[in-house]
Amino acid sequence: MKTLSLLLVVLLLGACASSKSGDVYTRDQARREMTVRKGIVESVRPVRMEGTKSGVGAMAGAAVGGVAGSSVGGGKGQIVGAVIGAVAGGLAGSTVEEGVTRKEALEIAVELDGGRMIVVVQEAVPGEFRAGDPVRVLSGQGETRVTR
Q: Which of 28, 48, 40, 37 is nearest to 122 (CA)?
């Protein structure tokens, strides 16, 4: 039962993760004006994008840990077990959420036409960008992305 519950938590957390790739738009970004600038990729460096810390993992882990902990002992021991299980489960769930939603990313340095240099970090698509590639930099509504 514990394994099934943990598997369910992991699957739910994976479903909550959204893409930060240059090819994925949120529904809110549709039909919004963006500024387009052109440039040349100066360098590409692989980096890691930390996972989400929404609290969903902690809450799910606390629930599973609390239920599991309450089966320990009897009387007041069950209450203590539930509390300890909830705290341990919450910490474990938070760690699982961050790990499951962590992504490989690229730090893309672009020299814009006109000489200005910018850097954009976005989810990695292997082989998508190389130094010397001409690219478009789209900016608007507080977000910037690099595309071909």
A: 48
Is the CATH code 3.40.50 the one for domain 32-49+103-148? no
Q: Determine the 3-state secondary structure of 87 from DSSP.
A: helix
Q: Residue 102, SS3?
A: coil
Q: How far apart are CA 46 and CA 49, in angstroms?
A: 10
Q: Where are the domains of the chain?
A: 1-18+51-101, 32-49+103-148
pLDDT tier for residue 12 given thresholds of 50, 70 and 90: low
pLDDT in tens, 98-114: 667 778 899 999 999 99
State the alpha helices, DSSP H only, in the chain: 2-16, 56-70, 76-101
